[in-house]
């Protein structure tokens, strides 16, 4: 009978492997992608124990539950397999260890069950996941009873057969679920960690968020069919465990726009394998009707297909879903891939973006404003232009916030601070084009690449040490995304630069007495570049008392302004900036500090807000002016 | 139904970059709803043909000719040999070498009617096409026209589809060399006239704001219309003149004395040139 126990472990492994191979046949429909299996496999334990755990542990219950049940399941099954070795099969000590492992699994499966029964939390999907606790329970309880009975009364006893049958039912059920059921996440998740399309995200200190450049000579631009994704991305979609962390983080979902990252990934899974189980999680809010036709070689986007275009264009590319995903799925990459096909091949970006895209293509500027007018906001302040000097220590990239009357105030404050601190700086003047970020997020890679190459050529004409910009979108483009086109620049965000100036004593700041302030992290600075500390330190240096919103730092919520979402303007129930300002109001702060032109515009556009919106640069200027006003008084004292 | 879309080399009003004029991009979208469309550009640079592919054409012909030469001859020759049912064109020149009066010159050369300012078109029964024509003040007029016909597109037509790089890449351009034609030989010489002071249209109206608006826009109320049938040409002309004087388009008869005109125009032309 001990051999039967070992056989069960091998049978489960065999069944799981067979089911994985059946699923892998679908992944193989995807496009080719280079994968270094050896190095990926070597790095798997670290990626699982460090990177995945880091995300899972944000929900301590889920983390404990998963550690116990997954650890128990693996340990118990492996240990049971060793029973084919005769010396072990005869050892009562060995069987008590096996029993212990199964008991751990049992405890874990009770935790899994307690999470779903009596009431399943809203963010979790139902369907097959509701069966999972029972399968685990059967396998664990049967295994515990069987191992315990062998340990206590030897291999021949009446309990053993029944216990083994129960364990086999549960265990084989779990193994069968590897193809289409909840257990798929375990196998696909592990393979995804090995063959992840963004290997760098596990390796460097800062996030790997630069969009991959599209080969404009490729036979097809962007993803139209599920089979157009590379196979390891299809594998990534299959890794989804439907925990719904992405949907709780998604600003578009919160605002009632028809996007739910979890549903989107499941729709991509369902598009690849239409005969799989139906999705039973929360839907797209205000879901647009779709005919739902699907197949590996059927288009993904369209009212007649699986995903409505409005879903695609609701995304702000804030990466909150990617940040929250314990399975390391790259939702934003998938969305951009699909958008690229819509825009580049089908002329089908959102109707409201037609003009913006045309302006970017024809006038290098989203509003078709003259490039010569970019510096107009600085009337009355000295704004050196680099073409007249040829070189400067710091090149100030103004971005398209410069055309905005409100944001002009921030830039004026920043330039005044530069003068105050004696920074040797210059701007590109009329040679500065849009970075193309907006075109790229709207899928127009061709326009983006044209702008990127033109900007890189301009920048390479001049000598400067660093680029400073107050626009995190420009920062991300210049620092991370231009690299693929030969632009290698050191780019500093203005908040980090101001911190440097303050710490070097070049900006004598007084203490501001302006009540409490809460800092709103721009997605493209925090999540895309991992910079969350410098702006906070600046606020602390100028003496403001700082409170944090519940969502801050890398888990901050988007203002709604990224990814061309304000231009696509997909209707929902609420506006994202309204939600964010409500979160700011919860802290009781009288002021919201921002560090991005888009956030400034979005948050200041909220009606009935109680807090003022101030850029970090404006606050520093206020502090410098306060210090200057205090000085004569101090000298007199 | 076969459609030829005339493409011209416009310039972006702000950046000055070469651009396909918006109305021509709209024409491409309109043509897509009618039948098989091809583009046709005569000029030194293939840019408009390339841009047109991105806006939705599958095929465009670029007839290369020197800058400054008259495009009407090559255009007309090509249209005659292709014999499309409808020739769609932009509406007027706003910058660069935009189409301007070329559609009118082409229609005149071909001897086919021209319908300006279409906002929508539908094929009707054999050889007929139904055109919704934009008139001032948002009025639409439905015309049924026999093909072949030259049609210009109004900006109020459905917006153009955005430029798609993939489409531009897929489409094909046929390059054709044209026999050089001299602009001066083909086109009538430009005419120069001295500046003429425009009559003030508001003067005759007076009254309330509504009256003045009515006078300027010439709103045709049912009571204001005067239908004259079977008049002699002289009587008809008198009626028209009287009407124009009444609404203020022409100065009243007494003010139009010959003595004051030249002085005024000389004065004004000095202003215009200084």
From TrEMBL, chain A:
Domain 4Fe-4S ferredoxin-type intervals: 231-261, 303-334
Pfam family, one: CCG
Keyword Magnesium belongs to the record: no
Protein name in UniProt: (Fe-S)-binding protein
Keywords recorded for this protein, A-Z: 4Fe-4S, Iron, Iron-sulfur, Membrane, Metal-binding, Oxidoreductase, Signal, Transmembrane, Transmembrane helix
Residue ranges crossing the lipid bilayer per the database entry: 65-87, 93-113, 134-152, 158-176
Signal peptide: 1-18
From TrEMBL, chain B:
Start-end of Basic and acidic residues biased regions: 263-274
Lineage, uppermost ranks: Bacteria, Pseudomonadati, Pseudomonadota, Alphaproteobacteria, Hyphomicrobiales
Keywords: Electron transport, Transport
Listed InterPro entries: ETF_a/b_N, Rossmann-like_a/b/a_fold
All residue ranges annotated as the Electron transfer flavoprotein alpha/beta-subunit N-terminal domain in the record: 24-180
Record Pfam families: ETF
Region entry Disordered, spans: 252-274
Ranges of Low complexity composition bias in the record: 252-262
Gene3D superfamilies registered for this protein in UniProt: HUPs
Protein origin, superkingdom: Bacteria
SUPFAM superfamilies assigned to the protein according to its UniProt record, in alphabetical order: Adenine nucleotide alpha hydrolases-like
Name of the protein described by the UniProt record: Electron transfer flavoprotein subunit beta
Organism (species): Chelatococcus sambhunathii
């Amino acid at each position: 009978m001990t051999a039967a126990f070992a056989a069960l472990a091998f049978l489960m492994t065999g069944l799981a492997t067979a089911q994985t191979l059946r699923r892998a046949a679908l992944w193989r429909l995807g496009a080719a992608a280079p994968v270094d299996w050896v190095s990926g496999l070597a790095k798997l334990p670290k990626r699982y124990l460090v990177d995945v755990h880091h995300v899972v542990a944000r929900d301590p219950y889920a983390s404990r539950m998963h550690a116990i049940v997954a650890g128990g399941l693996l340990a118990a099954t492996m240990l049971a397999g060793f029973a084919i070795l005769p010396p072990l099969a005869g050892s009562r000590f060995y069987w008590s260890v096996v029993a212990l492992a199964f008991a751990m699994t049992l405890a874990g499966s009770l935790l899994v069950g307690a999470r779903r029964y009596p009431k399943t939390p809203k963010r979790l999907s139902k369907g097959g996941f509701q069966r999972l606790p029972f399968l685990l329970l059967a396998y664990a309880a049967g295994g515990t009873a069987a191992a315990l009975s062998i340990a206590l009364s030897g291999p021949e006893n009446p309990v053993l057969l029944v216990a083994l049958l129960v364990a086999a039912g549960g265990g084989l059920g779990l193994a069968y679920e590897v193809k289409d059921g909840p257990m798929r996440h375990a196998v696909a998740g592990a393979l995804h960690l090995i063959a992840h399309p963004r290997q760098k995200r596990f390796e460097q200190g800062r996030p790997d968020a630069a969009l991959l450049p599209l080969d404009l000579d490729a036979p097809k631009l962007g993803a139209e069919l599920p089979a157009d994704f590379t196979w390891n991305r299809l594998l990534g979609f299959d890794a989804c465990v439907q925990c719904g962390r992405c949907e709780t983080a998604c600003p578009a979902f919160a605002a009632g726009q028809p996007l739910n990252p979890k549903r989107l990934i499941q729709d991509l899974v369902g598009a690849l394998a239409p005969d799989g189980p139906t999705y039973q999680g929360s839907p797209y809010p205000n879901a647009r009707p779709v005919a739902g036709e699907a197949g590996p070689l059927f288009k993904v986007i369209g009212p007649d297909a699986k995903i409505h275009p409005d879903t695609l264009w609701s995304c702000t590319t804030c990466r909150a879903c990617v940040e929250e995903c314990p399975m390391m799925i790259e939702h934003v990459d998938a969305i951009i891939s699909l958008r690229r096909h819509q825009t580049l091949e089908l002329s089908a970006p959102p109707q409201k973006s037609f003009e913006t895209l045309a302006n970017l293509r024809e006038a290098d500027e989203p509003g078709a404003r003259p490039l010569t007018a970019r510096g107009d906001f600085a009337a009355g302040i000295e704004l050196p232009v680099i073409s007249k000097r040829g070189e400067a220590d710091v090149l100030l990239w103004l971005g398209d916030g410069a055309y905005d009357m409100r944001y002009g105030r921030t830039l004026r404050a920043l330039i005044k601070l530069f003068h105050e601190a004696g920074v040797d700086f210059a701007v590109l003047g009329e040679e500065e084009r849009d970075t193309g970020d907006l075109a790229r997020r709207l899928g127009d890679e061709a326009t983006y690449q044209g702008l990127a190459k033109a900007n890189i050529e301009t920048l390479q004409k001049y000598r400067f040490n660093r680029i400073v910009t107050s626009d995190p979108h420009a920062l991300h483009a210049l620092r991370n995304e231009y690299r693929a086109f030969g632009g290698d620049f050191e780019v500093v965000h203005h908040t980090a630069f101001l911190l440097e100036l303050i710490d070097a004593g070049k900006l004598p700041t007084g203490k501001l007495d302006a009540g409490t302030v809460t800092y709103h992290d721009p997605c493209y600075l925090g999540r895309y570049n991992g910079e969350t500390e410098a702006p906070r330190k600046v606020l602390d240096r100028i003496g403001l008392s700082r409170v944090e919103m519940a969502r801050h730092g890398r888990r901050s919520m988007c203002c709604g302004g990224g990814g061309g979402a304000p231009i696509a303007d997909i209707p929902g129930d609420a506006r994202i900036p309204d939600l964010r300002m409500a979160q700011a109001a919860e802290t009781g702060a009288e002021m919201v500090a921002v560090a991005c032109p888009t956030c400034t515009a979005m948050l200041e556009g909220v009606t009935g807000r109680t807090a003022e919106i101030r850029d970090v640069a404006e606050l520093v200027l206020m502090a410098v002016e306060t210090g200057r006003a205090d000085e004569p008084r101090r000298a007199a004292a | 139904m076969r459609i030829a879309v005339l493409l011209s080399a416009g310039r972006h009003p702000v950046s000055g970059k070469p651009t396909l004029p918006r109305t021509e991009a709209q024409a491409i979208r309109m043509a897509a709803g009618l039948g098989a469309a091809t583009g046709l550009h005569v000029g030194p640079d293939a840019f408009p043909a390339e841009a047109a592919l991105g806006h939705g054409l599958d095929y465009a012909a670029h007839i290369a000719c020197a800058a400054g030469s008259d495009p009407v001859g090559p255009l007309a020759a090509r249209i005659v040999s292709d014999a499309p049912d409808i020739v769609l064109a932009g509406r007027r020149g706003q910058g660069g070498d935009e189409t301007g009066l070329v559609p009118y010159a082409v229609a005149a050369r071909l001897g086919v009617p021209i319908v300006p300012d279409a906002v929508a078109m539908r094929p009707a029964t054999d050889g007929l096409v139904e055109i919704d024509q934009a008139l001032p003040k948002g009025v639409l007029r439905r015309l049924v026209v026999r093909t072949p016909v030259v049609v210009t597109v109004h900006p109020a037509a459905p917006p153009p589809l955005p430029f798609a790089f993939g489409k531009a890449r897929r489409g094909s351009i046929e390059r054709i060399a044209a026999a050089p034609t001299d602009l001066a030989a083909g086109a009538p010489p430009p005419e120069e006239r001295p500046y003429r002071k425009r009559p003030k249209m508001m003067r005759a109206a007076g009254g309330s704001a509504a009256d003045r608006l009515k006078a300027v826009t010439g709103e045709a109320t049912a009571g204001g219309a005067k239908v004259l049938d079977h008049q002699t040409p002289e009587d008809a002309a008198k009626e028209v003149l009287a009407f124009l004087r009444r609404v203020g388009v022409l100065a009243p008869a007494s003010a139009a004395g010959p003595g004051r005109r030249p002085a005024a125009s000389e004065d004004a032309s000095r202003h215009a040139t200084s």
